[in-house]
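Q: Hi! Curious about what Amino acid transporter looks like structurally. Here's the sequence.
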Amino acid sequence: MASEDEIRLAKMGYKQEFNRGFKFIHNFGVSFSIISVIVGVNTLLSYALVAGGSAGAVIGWIVVSALTLCVGYSLTEICSAMPTSGGLYYWAAKLGGESWGPFFAWYTAWLNIIGGLCGFVSVSYSISQFVWSLVMIWNPDVEITLTKIALVAEAALVLAGVLNSIHDEVLAKVMELSVWTHLFGTVFIGITVLTRAPTRQSASFVFQSFENLTGQDSQGFAVLLGLLFPAWTFLGFDACAHIAEETIDSHINAARGIYMSVTIAVFAGFFLMMAALFSIQDVNAILGSPFPQSMTQLYLDACGPVYTTIIMVITLICSLANIIGSMMANSRVVYSWSRDGGYGKAISRFLYYAHPTSKLPLRGVWLTCILGMLLALIGFGSTVALSAFSSVATIGLFVSYMVPILSKATVARNTFKPGPINLGKLSPIVNWISIIWIVCLSVLFCLPSSYPVTGANLNYAPILIVFWTGVISLGWLVSARHWFKGPVMHVSEEDIAVLEGSSKVKEDSA
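A: Let's find out. The predicted structure is below.
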């Protein structure tokens, strides 16, 4: 007997092929884990101290939070209307109509896949830096090399791939652990540093102290660069959509997962950032720290090695959950894209596979994992290109967010049928704020982040974005425009009628 979720999915053109066992906490947990304010603050706050200072970090968090909420809420209402694992590219296709839909879907899918890959590769290196920072707390003389950092990053990716391959119940438990670790961990870290810090910074330092150590003369531009700190953090909330076909009542729970993960992250991250800023003992010691992750110095100065160790362990759990969730979401896009023939016939036929027992898209999981590991090999030789991964991830993902929002605000402005969760009359305003913000953010991420610009600090993000956009465009112009027509219907009208009939029989018997 068909469930309402199965019927809803069939009307979008697809058969139920995954286990549908995730509840709201699991769906929410994936996006909340990928946003991960614990990872974001502990990885990126030190950059905000360079570009903007503590006051710049506070202003940046408030401004970027408000704008990101607009993006999150815009995606929420689209997800509520069309909860499918293809997510962004499926929405772009349907909202773009017959004329623009295939074109929009092609770019959205590839930007989403590439952005997701760069995102979890970046976090795998953060995991390695946290691991070696933890080692250095108790063994300060240990030699940290590029090879050691790269090996741990590769090991983290393999572990994420393994955990993504066992069973959906394992993933559910990981996401439950992640949610509670993030929530209680944020409170624990914040209270610990505030109560144990020998001295606390004044309100004037936190709210009025601006800094510009970027190497250029404009304080205002430094504050603008500081916006990258929260922008890097608020990433990956589209994951709720990508596991919608595994979520019960997905038109409600996947949509709720998006807006709840962003909203809670905004307030949890603000609390953690404020606690860290008030607990700083010596800004110069943090910026000149020998630790691979310089925020380790802040915790060590504030609360000593034992509590810093606990904080690092919490951060590592959250970081690992981050790449597990990222790989999970990315593999579902890979699977969905193959289901719709996005790779061409032969490759799509191979990748369109869910394991008969676990119902997991194992080929998509391991393609995602292996590609991530290949990208991570760059770290064995240099960290310069690796620094661009976060920016490429942010630009790729946010632009893939923008395309369906733009399609809804233009092509489908009069035809979009909202789901149960929607913005009502505010929808056009929120949509256009989101679009303008993403355009501005994309430009900001392509600017140099430190001066004078040299080969060692060059921002490679625009180069990589131009390269990948060129490859995607070439693929469309030379080949895909002739054969890719958008999402493929795998369910006939007769199949839908049978599903609806079985559901009615179930209701009547009940």
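A: A fun detail: Residues 88-138 form the longest helix (51 residues).
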